[in-house]
Amino acid sequence: SPPPTTPPTRTLAWAPTSLTTKSQLQQNNLNPTSKPLLLLLHRSPTDSYPLHWESTGGGADPSLDDTLLSALCRETVEETGLRVTKVVDLVAVDEWRKALPGGQGEKKVIKWGFLVEVEETNSLKLNPEEHCAFRWADEDEVQCCENR
């Protein structure tokens, strides 16, 4: 099958080692020496998939993004106010086909998952039209919720 005509979509995960201060960890009842955490965002009650938890993500915009990594950095700032300082690893690639409206065929969708570090800051800046809350969760918490 032919490659997509625009850069693919992706999601993000963060290792908060360079972001989270000791006081922030204590506010979230987390141990400062704990393993990397995933930043989960709570979707706004007025947005699609209301009040669902998700990782940060978005689509690449060919008019703004020269590469997938530039899309990753731009979307991170737009959704959280955080600046990516290091892309640690590509952790997942999912691919599927999505039907186009009006029965006009289908398009290929690719979702890329990255582990990144972000600059240290005291707070996240959420867009209230998209997200109403956030939480740092370790792998065990995420797996527990997936199995409910």
As laid out across the biggest beta sheet, the strand order is: 4-5-1-3-2-6
- Which class best fits the helix and strand makeup? alpha+beta
| Uncertain stretches | 1-26, 28-32
| Radius of gyration using CA atoms only | 16 Å
Number of beta-strand segments: 6
Q: Compute the number of structural domains.
A: 1
Q: Percent helix among the residues?
A: 10-25%
Q: Give, in order, the helices and strands.
A: EHEEHEEEH
Main sheet characteristics: 6 strands, mixed
The CATH class assignment is Alpha Beta
Write the CATH architecture name. Answer: Alpha-Beta Complex
Instruction: Kindly identify the CATH topology.
Output: Nucleoside Triphosphate Pyrophosphohydrolase
Strand content: 35-45%
User: What average pLDDT do the residues reach?
Assistant: 76
Total count of helical runs of at least 4 residues? 3
Give the full name of the CATH homologous superfamily: Nucleoside Triphosphate Pyrophosphohydrolase
What distance lies between the first and last C-alpha atoms, to the nearest angstrom?
36 Å
Question: Shape, please?
Answer: globular
Description:
The structure is a single chain. The protein has 148 residues and is an alpha+beta fold. The protein has a single domain, classed as Alpha-Beta Complex (Nucleoside Triphosphate Pyrophosphohydrolase), CATH 3.90.79.10. The chain contains 3 helices and 6 strands. It has helices at residues 22-27, 68-80, 139-146, and strands spanning 9-14, 38-43, 53-58, 84-99, 106-118, 131-137. It has a 6-stranded mixed β-sheet. A hairpin with a 6-residue loop joins strand 4 and strand 5 (106-118).
